[in-house]
Amino acid sequence: MIQLNNIEKYYENGAIKTFVLRQLNLEIQEGEFVSIMGPSGAGKSTLLHILGMLDTPSGGEYHFYDQPVHQLNERQTTELHRDHIGFVFQSYHLIDELTVAENLETPLLYQKVKSNERKGRIAEMLDRFNIVAKKGLFPNQLSGGQQQLIGIARALITNPKLILADEPTGNLNSAEGERIMTHFKHLNAEGVSIIQCTHSEKNAAYGSRIINLVDGWVDADERTSS
Description:
alpha/beta, 6-stranded mixed β-sheet, 7 helices
């Protein structure tokens, strides 16, 4: 599904290059649940944003389902991201002025899904996450855990092949966080590929593989018993 060859990310200030990722080589198979760990500044979020095509590497090759992402233009990468990837953010990124149902509908509008199908998918997600009663509420009327559930439902509503999650429980209490991780585990069991960045060893253990980054390098890559 994903093949990274010598991926680098750096920022230039005159003749000085500040590296965030260094010659990173990584292969991720379809159906995996991968946890990316490491201290602050290790490059976790940068890697996730490159995988999600929200950022571009400074060098190296990125293949996504045999598509050479590093050679595609902005329109092509936008379409690839839109059609195959769902993103879950730590800070939810819901639109405050829209209701729960309208937030769920937004990615479908970008995909130009027809009205009847949009209504059907929204109803399915509301039912799946047991949030039918919340559909007319606005984000500021929900708890953090409820907002993150909406974020996951919004990421899933386009039927993506891959979910990317950046510290998905970072703003939640332990009970809410455990609920979110259980949802991810169930989604992965259904065949959805998941890559998450996390500081939490407990959350990382929900994955089947843990990749540890240190100073932009892969320091360890291990399978878990889960």
